[in-house]
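Pipeline run #58 for the internal structure catalog. This entry was flagged by the ingest filter as a single-chain record with no existing model, so it goes straight to prediction. Upstream metadata was stripped on purpose; only the residue string is passed forward. Reviewer on rotation: M.T. Logging verbosity set to normal.
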Amino acid sequence: MFGVTLKKSLLAVILSGASFAGSARAANVTLNETGLDALYGQWSIDIRYNATQTIYNSALLSIDNDGEFGVLSTYQTSGSVISMFFVDSINFCGIALPNIVGCASVPGTLIALDSGFIASSGAAVTAVGHEIGHNLGLDHLDVNGNLMRPTTFTFDSNAMPQLTLGQRTTILASALVQTEQGTNQKFIQITPFLVAADAPEPATWSLLGLAFSVAAWKMRRARSV
């Protein structure tokens, strides 16, 4: 471990053995901000995303051990901002388990998400909201309809997951819930990180540029003929 306790996503056990691993490069970053605003708006908390950052590190495309979570933590920049990493796959979260779709520090500021699942699943909003709950200090609570229940359920804006009074007290006491001066609006700030393959070396970029230039010249010559 690297100083925090890791928790599996509410979907990890249910989806074990099923392949939801997408490609962070292909799926890019899906923020689900509207759904998360509706979810956390129940407790008068606004979800605010900073600009997406990109990490070029092939070794972190798949999170397979505690050491790789430690490497992710080195990219964090602020103790009051959640760092949300979108990766290709997660196979470790405290224990080894294939096809985990989310893992978070409890409490803390680190979340790793399977980008393919978050981009395509109807349960993406509740999965991300669940992991944010872990960062705010919440553990699993196996109660029907509760956001922290360790089982999968699709997000429904007409019947949104709830928190107990004790859970609401815990999240509102978290240092991650900030208050905007002037409006007194409570908000959680998140920086998304897209984990991608290593960037090409400068020499590779030069060769690619030369190849594109030759191709463009040939196309212009063909048109003129």
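catalog note: The chain has a mean pLDDT of 83.
catalog note: Residues 69 and 124 are 21 Å apart (CA to CA).
status: ready for reviewer M.T.
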